Amino acid sequence: METTCETTGSTLLLTDKIGAAYHLALLDEPYSEHVYWHLHQDTDGQADATAALYSLSRPTIIFLLGEADAVGECLARADLPVLAYIAYFPQHAAALNKSYRVPKPVEMQRMVLTSDKFELSRHDFARQRPAIGGEPIVLRPPHVELLEELYASEPGFAPDPHQYATGGYLGIFAEDKLLAAAGTHFVSEEHSFAMIGNVVTRPGCRRLGLATRAVISQLARLFDRVETVCLNVAASNSAAVKMYESLGFTSHCTYYEGVGVLRKVAVNAPQEGLHGGFCRFGHALAR
Predict the structure, then answer these.
(1) What does the radius of gyration of the chain's CA atoms come to, in whole angstroms?
(2) What gap in Å lies between CA 64 and CA 12, rounded to an integer?
(3) β-strands 170-174, 60-66: how paired?
(4) Which of 53, 105, 174, 218 could serve as a FRET partner for 79 with CA atoms 20 to 30 Å apart?
C-alpha cells in the first residue's frame, strides 16, 4: 500500500502543536493550495522532518520543522527559490547554512496562553480603559486602506487577505482614525488553537493601553472557539513581551526568521527516505 503524507506526518506535526503552529496552519484552505511539502522519513516510515514552501506570498516562505540532519536533506533535494523568507529553529541553523545565507536573522519567541489562564488574567484589565479610542471593532473591507496605512509605520506588517476577509482583525478608532489593530493569523478549531499577530499601535498613541485592549478583545473572541492561542514576538521587543506576559502568555520556544539568499542551485536527485513534491497532509492528519 502506498504510504501517504497523512500517515507519515501525524507524529511530526502533532507532537508539539505550538511548535508546529505554522505547519498546521498550512493544512487549511486557502493556504493548503499553495504549499509544496518536502518530507523526510525515518527508518520506520514516519516523517521526521519537513521543509514546507509556501508560495502564496512573495518572497516564498520556507518553514522548517523536525530533526536537524533530515531538514538539511529536505533542503538539499528541494527546488529552492533564490530568495526566500525562512522560519527555522536553532537546531536547523547549521543545515540551513548549507543552502541559504541568512545575514540578519531575527530571534523570535513563540508565546502561548490557555483559556483558563486568560480568564484569570484579563480580570485585572477589565476596568482599565485607554485614555483615547473606543471599544475594538471588527474591521471590514471598507477599512482596508486605513489598516494598510497603519501598518505602513511598521515595515513587514501587512494584513492577511483571507483572515481580514473573514473578520479576523480588530481595530480601535478615535473618530475616523485607526489607532491600533490586532490580527489573526489562523484559527484551527480542529486542533483547538489559534495564532494572533500583526498587533500595531500608531506612533504617538503608544503606551496608552490600546494594543492591550485590542489583544484582550481578540483573545476573548478566540477563546470562544479554541482552548489555546499562540503568538510570535521579536525577543528584542521587551515592551511587547512584557505586555503579553501580563496577560498570562508564557514563552514556548525560540525560533528565527530572516530573508535567505540561495547559495547554489540544488540538485534534485532521488534519495531514499525523502518524499519531495507537492503533497497534502490533509485533514485526516488529526483523525
Answers:
(1) 20
(2) 12
(3) unpaired
(4) 105
Mean pLDDT of the chain: 85
Residue whose entry in the numeric block shows the C-alpha cell 528584542: 236
Interstrand relation of 274-275 and 250-262 (parallel, antiparallel or unpaired): unpaired
Q: What is the pLDDT of residues 70-101, one digit of tens each?
A: 999 999 999 999 999 999 999 999 999 999 99
Q: How many alpha carbons fall within 13 Å on the CB side of residue 244?
A: 26
Residue 120 to residues 113, 123, 248: CA-CA distances in angstroms?
Answer: 11, 6, 8
Between CA 80 and CA 87, with CA 6 as vertex, the angle to 5 degrees is: 35
Is the separation of the CB atoms in 36 and 60 below 8 Å?
A: no
Strand ranges in the chain using DSSP code E only, listed in sequence order:
35-41, 47-54, 60-66, 83-88, 100-101, 106-114, 137-138, 170-174, 177-188, 193-201, 228-234, 250-262, 274-275
Structural domains for the chain: 5-107+257-286 (3.40.630), 109-253 (3.40.630.30)
Question: What distance in Å separates the CA atoms of residue 268 and residue 270, rounded to the nearest whole number?
Answer: 7
Angle between helices 238-246 and 210-222 (to 10 degrees): 50
Torsion of CA 259, 265, 271, 276, to 10 degrees: 50
